[in-house]
Design brief:
Elements (H helix, E strand, L loop, with lengths): L4 E8 L2 E8 L2 E5 L6 H11 L5 E3 L5 H11 L16 H10 L8 E2 H7 L6 H9 L12 E2 L12 H10 L3
Parallel strand pairs: 1-4, 5-6
Antiparallel strand pairs: 1-2, 2-3
Helix pairs in contact: 3-5, 4-5
Amino acid sequence: MAQPIYWTNFNFGDIQFVIAAIEQGLCYTGSLHENEEKLFVWANKHHKGSEVKEDASKLTSYIQQFTEYFQGQRQQFDFSIHYRGTPFQESVWRELQQIPYGETCTYSDIALRIGNPKAVRAVGGAIGANPVIIVVPCHRVIGKDGTLTGFSAGIELKKALLAVEGQ
């Protein structure tokens, strides 16, 4: 039997997005101002048969840490995360977690760090598929020329996240 996925909306000022978790940890962080429909589509694809239930009480520790992050009081999240991807995607996501708070790097840097310097486009695809944005900090990846490019949750949120981190 598939385990339930619990979700709620996270709100901080003008920033609002969906978060969801399973027993093993946070499994989904949605885009800025999206509704739960995108979560349902994602859950059906990645956790077939799981019941998706709105229940903020199951997500209080995540809400607390996201709030602290947006208040500038937290630089690292210490809750568990649970993501599913291809081995390549997961290697990229693990490497993203090595980018220090308040720093940025390029897609080329990530490709080099995973030992596949020609895979810059594939790295971009893997970053775009990241299901737990912010916690796996894909917002810290920028274009080679320093531009803010390719953020699945929208450039508006990427700018806000980098501003929180002093960029």
